[in-house]
Amino acid sequence: MLTAESRRQDFPSLEGIAYLNTAAESIPPLCVAEAVAEYMRHKSMGMRGREPHFARVEQCREIAARLIGLQTNEVSFCSCSSEAYNLLASALDLKADDEVLLTDIDFPAGATPWLTARVKPKIALWKQREGALELIDLLPLLTERTRLVQLSLVSFYNGCRLAWKRVVEKIRRMAPQAIIAVDVTQALGRVPLDMSDADIVISSTHKWTLAIHGGCVVGIPARASARLTTTAGGWYHIENAFNEDRFQRAQVKTGAASFSVGMPSFAPIYALNASLRYLDAIGIEAIAAHADPLVQQAHDAIIGLGLKPMAKLDQAANPTGIIAFQHPETARMHSALEAADVHVMHHAGRIRVAIHGYNTTDDVCRLVDTLATCV
Questions:
Q1: Which of 180, 273, 198, 215 is nearest to 84 (CA)?
Q2: Are 43 and 18 in the same domain?
Q3: Which of 241, 279, 321, 337 has its CA 20 to 30 A from that of 94?
Q4: Rounded percentage of the chain residues whose pLDDT exceeds 90
Q5: Whole-angstrom Cα distance, residue 297 to residue 270?
Q6: 3-class SS at 98?
Q7: Cα(81)–Cα(218) distance, rounded to whole angstroms?
Q8: 55 with 112, same domain?
Q9: What mean pLDDT is predicted for residues 126-131?
């Protein structure tokens, strides 16, 4: 991933292109395809395949927990971040006078369950200021009625990364009853993480983790498990699902285990186990050390072209893999980038660039040279 040879060997589809769109869709290494093929071999064994299926679940639980700073028994899986947030909503069972704090640069999955609830809690919105979420704007929003603070460690929208420790300290002091939920989809696999001071950690699996669709990591530290146990029905998360008393009561497993309500989606778990172990073997720190300077290079060059990034960049204190900018000519820019085989995200007048460990200086130069023809 970090050398020309390993890039050619592990990511052959990157040959000839500058792929800078990992924040939307990653390019999995070949070991992920091999893992999915292994799942199919095990699936073809019928019931005998279930033993390796569940073995992969435990292996994936271990590596996922390690990469977010939790214990193995504090991590589970569901199908996507939207499912995880809806299960969180069932666990919290918020009332009309409870308060939920959201940010205006969060992904919809973390915001909409509270907006579509039959009983809607009060919503407080932490708004960005020139692309950043400032602590001075957070403090007045926190009250004794705050029951949930929903955050993204790195914003999908503009790449803003929270000053996590400082934010957590303020929330714990000003809103001691609040659950802190954090989406690390735009960070897991790209930056070193220790999210043990959050109450629930959620991540999709098809972006920086280099895995595939259909999976979601859910981490809940043991200290928060009693408060964060879903009330959803199912069977895999039920202790007494096949006991004689199963029609009289349902005894739900606590914490993260309660978020796996049905049969695990094994193929995405095989893929995630392979991709996280691939990243771990390289080292998330090594990936960051390689990719962070490329982000800085792209950021500085974009400013040099007269374009303004949408978020403040602090690669020393809060590194991120994302740069985004707006411009009246982004449609024309995107067309030029597409023609040059430079892959970025373009949406609603915004271009978003995402840089991972498989990217190179040549990718950044290709991006900048193409943009220079449009400004």
A1: 215
A2: no
A3: 241
A4: 95
A5: 35
A6: coil
A7: 9
A8: yes
A9: 94
Q: How many CA atoms lie within 13 A of 254 on its CB side?
A: 7
Using an 8 Å Cβ cutoff, are 135 and 162 in contact? no
Tell me the C-alpha distance between 228 and 226, whole Å: 6
Q: At 25, is the secondary structure helix, strand, or coil? A: coil
Question: Tell me, what's the pLDDT at 2?
Answer: 83
Q: 290 and 271, same structural domain?
A: no
CB–CB of 350/156 below 8 Å? Answer: no
DSSP label at residue 46: G
- Mean pLDDT, residues 131-159: 96
- Say if residue 269 is in the same domain as residue 169: yes
CATH number at residue 324: 3.90.1150.10
* Cα-based distances in Å from 41 to 38, 46, 50: 5, 10, 11
Look at residue 252 and give its three-state secondary structure: strand
- Token output for 160: 């803003």
Instruction: Record the tokens describing residue 120, joined without a space.
Output: 């809607």
C-alpha torsion angle, residues 353, 358, 360, 363 (rounded to 10)? -40
**Cα–Cα distance, 110 to 157 (Å, whole number):** 13
State the burial class of residue 358 (Cβ atoms within 10 Å of its Cβ: 0-12, 13-18, 19+). buried
Domain coverage including residue 96: 33-280
Task: For the full predicted model, state whether its pTM sits above 0.85.
Answer: yes
The alpha-helical segments, DSSP class H, found in the chain are 4-10, 30-43, 50-68, 81-92, 108-115, 135-138, 164-174, 266-282, 284-304, 330-339, 361-372
Amino acid occupying residue 179: I
User: What is the Cα–Cα distance from 355 to 19, expressed in whole angstroms?
Assistant: 8
Q: Do residue 140 and residue 246 come from a single domain?
A: yes
Going edge to edge, which strands form the sheet with 345-347? 322-326, 350-354, 345-347
DSSP structure class, residue 12: G
Tokens 């279930």 -> residue: 50
Q: How many domains does the chain have?
A: 2
